[in-house]
Amino acid sequence: MQRGLLRLAALAVLAAAPALADSPGGRPVKLALPDGEQVYKQVCAACHLDHAQGSPDGTVPALAHNAKLASADYPITVVMKGQGGMPWFSEMLTPGQVAAVVGYVRTHFDNSYADPVSEADVKRIAAAIRTSEE
Amino acid sequence: MTDSTAPSRRDLLTMIGKVGGAAAMYQAMTALGHAAETQFTGPPVLSGAKPGASVVILGAGLAGMAAAYELQKAGYSVKILEFQDRPGGRNYSLRGGDTFTESDGTVQKVQFAAGNYLNPGPWRIPHHHKALLHYCRQFGVALEPFIQLNHNGFIHSTEAFGGKPMRYKEVATDFKGHTSELLAKAISAKALDDKLSAEDQEKLMEALRGWGVLDKNLAYTSSLKVSAQRGYAQAPGGGRNGAPTPSQIAKLQDVLDPQVWTAMSFYFSYVMQTTMFQPVGGMDMIGKAFAKQIGKIVTYNAKAVKVAQSDKGVTVSYKDVATGQMHDVSADYCVCTIPLSIISQVDMQVSPALKAAMKAVPYGGHVKIGLEFKRRFWEEDDNIYGGHSFTDQSITQLSYPNDRMFGSGPAVLLGAFARDLAGFQLAGMTPQQRIETALKQGEVFHPQYRKEYMNGVSVPWSRVPWILGCTSAWSEDNRKAHYKALVTLDNRVVMAGEHASYYGGWMEGSILSGMDAIAQIHDHAQAA
């Protein structure tokens, strides 16, 4: 009986089409996100909070005063790939928006990493992620 | 025609079920041509648990409580540790007097009138979610229809129809009509001659004429026939002025706006098809029913901080969040249903493969906003009874209450149901800003909003401290790489919850994963 159930489950997993989560309908909403500050406020702040302080219990990391931002490649990779419970933003944001917000966070919230972040950096990392997943 | 001595299909299935068990019956049902709508054929039969066998379950959501219920029935000794002070997990409802605390410490106090509620998490149940429906039936949870497809709901796009909301029946009829006309024209122009035989072209043409409501010239034009689907300028009446007049169809360019087809497509989705249900009085009726059935085995306010295991058993260390005191609980096995966004940050002694899987699954950030109004103007003024309206603004979707229709007094409308970027945008606002946004954007549908508004509450799942997201969002690549490791018993620990299923974000997935988790434990225990 148990084995039968498990076998059935295994078969159906192979056959199953991706199921939709219980989500709203309609097309994806477009937001005007003209600069890094707006991307932060309208997207990142949902979890990392208004001052990039992260959640008080530490489950959402603070971006403020964060030494991991020293190299822009790291935050770009996290934004493009997601990490833990954080989704990947490679499909929701343009490379330009990712560059803008990473640049914004690295120069605000008690971070001062002045070297610029470009769209080309984001595209380079996107290509590297694709290669590593193949 | 009917041979009364031959067994009916039902008799046959009953017989197969008795002889071969549920799995055999399931296979037989499939063979007899019933669509396999569910994998659920009844809870696993866990016969003969060894005396004293024990399981500790982390999380008193539906996965954990369904697992506990079946394990207890089989003779296992079960304890549940739950972080919150209530059962149900995401299966809950907010009512007047409740408070809701966000991850940044912001507190909202719900002010709804007695009897009104918002279901922040799950809120509708597909008719084929048979595991969940099985328990609702067994526990006597009263269900009522959830009005899903309402032809009178609105579709709004800022980029079409001059920004004016249209009724679903209008735009769906017009989309069907205009596209039928185009296809009919293509056939007439012999553009499909190499694809379709003359006979099939004729059949298709007949379908387009009827289904698309085309005129004698194969054009989609305003007429009483078309109005019989999309609605009239003057509806049919009685007596001297009874004659209806046709409404004006919308332009092809407008109905090509993606808000139209995405709404139509939404209702085709397997999990969104009618009939759908909701519990009478709030979604938490289900969680409460489970809690009553499993008895007093839940330790509330218990935050798991460490899960250690050996070949002999599992020890969970937890903190009593009320007193700050640490405790240990040991058992032969552990079912862990804590959302991955949280448990991946807990010290767990599990295999590297399971650890990697726990870190591989991101969570969506849906937002719901409940608005209480003085009266049901959507019913009284706009003839909308349940169902949804869609917009391309951040609030994305409005949903009308499915219960107590025609009631007087305050009622709660879902004023926003947002996902992805729109969800993050609303989550990043203060509660006051969210309500203001919901009122401002929702006014496009219902100008009565400001006059009738009383109060509201918003639930941004990204800021719900005990999950930091709404539901798991597996990518296909992650699924391939990590799903098997996530759902397979890891020595003495097994994961369960919607994230451990192919029904992410549905209560059905939670329960089915809970069933598979305990089947694995039982098999392992019996083999030992």
From TrEMBL, chain A:
<keyword id="KW-0732">Signal</keyword>
<protein>
    <submittedName>
        <fullName>C-type cytochrome</fullName>
    </submittedName>
</protein>
<feature type="domain" description="Cytochrome c">
    <location>
        <begin position="31"/>
        <end position="109"/>
    </location>
</feature>
<dbReference type="InterPro" id="IPR051459">
    <property type="entry name" value="Cytochrome_c-type_DH"/>
</dbReference>
<dbReference type="Pfam" id="PF13442">
    <property type="entry name" value="Cytochrome_CBB3"/>
</dbReference>
<dbReference type="InterPro" id="IPR009056">
    <property type="entry name" value="Cyt_c-like_dom"/>
</dbReference>
<dbReference type="GO" id="GO:0046872">
    <property type="term" value="F:metal ion binding"/>
</dbReference>
<keyword id="KW-0349">Heme</keyword>
<dbReference type="GO" id="GO:0009055">
    <property type="term" value="F:electron transfer activity"/>
</dbReference>
<dbReference type="GO" id="GO:0020037">
    <property type="term" value="F:heme binding"/>
</dbReference>
<dbReference type="InterPro" id="IPR036909">
    <property type="entry name" value="Cyt_c-like_dom_sf"/>
</dbReference>
<keyword id="KW-0408">Iron</keyword>
<keyword id="KW-0479">Metal-binding</keyword>
<feature type="signal peptide">
    <location>
        <begin position="1"/>
        <end position="21"/>
    </location>
</feature>
UniProtKB/TrEMBL annotation, chain B:
<comment type="pathway">
    <text>Plant hormone metabolism; auxin biosynthesis.</text>
</comment>
<protein>
    <recommendedName>
        <fullName>Tryptophan 2-monooxygenase</fullName>
        <ecNumber>1.13.12.3</ecNumber>
    </recommendedName>
</protein>
<keyword id="KW-0073">Auxin biosynthesis</keyword>
<keyword id="KW-0560">Oxidoreductase</keyword>
<feature type="binding site">
    <location>
        <begin position="121"/>
        <end position="124"/>
    </location>
    <ligand>
        <name>FAD</name>
    </ligand>
</feature>
<feature type="binding site">
    <location>
        <position position="124"/>
    </location>
    <ligand>
        <name>substrate</name>
    </ligand>
</feature>
<dbReference type="Pfam" id="PF01593">
    <property type="entry name" value="Amino_oxidase"/>
</dbReference>
<dbReference type="InterPro" id="IPR002937">
    <property type="entry name" value="Amino_oxidase"/>
</dbReference>
<dbReference type="InterPro" id="IPR050281">
    <property type="entry name" value="Flavin_monoamine_oxidase"/>
</dbReference>
<comment type="similarity">
    <text>Belongs to the tryptophan 2-monooxygenase family.</text>
</comment>
<feature type="domain" description="Amine oxidase">
    <location>
        <begin position="62"/>
        <end position="517"/>
    </location>
</feature>
<dbReference type="GO" id="GO:0050361">
    <property type="term" value="F:tryptophan 2-monooxygenase activity"/>
</dbReference>
<dbReference type="InterPro" id="IPR006311">
    <property type="entry name" value="TAT_signal"/>
</dbReference>
<dbReference type="GO" id="GO:0009851">
    <property type="term" value="P:auxin biosynthetic process"/>
</dbReference>
<feature type="binding site">
    <location>
        <position position="498"/>
    </location>
    <ligand>
        <name>FAD</name>
    </ligand>
</feature>
<dbReference type="InterPro" id="IPR036188">
    <property type="entry name" value="FAD/NAD-bd_sf"/>
</dbReference>
<dbReference type="InterPro" id="IPR001613">
    <property type="entry name" value="Flavin_amine_oxidase"/>
</dbReference>
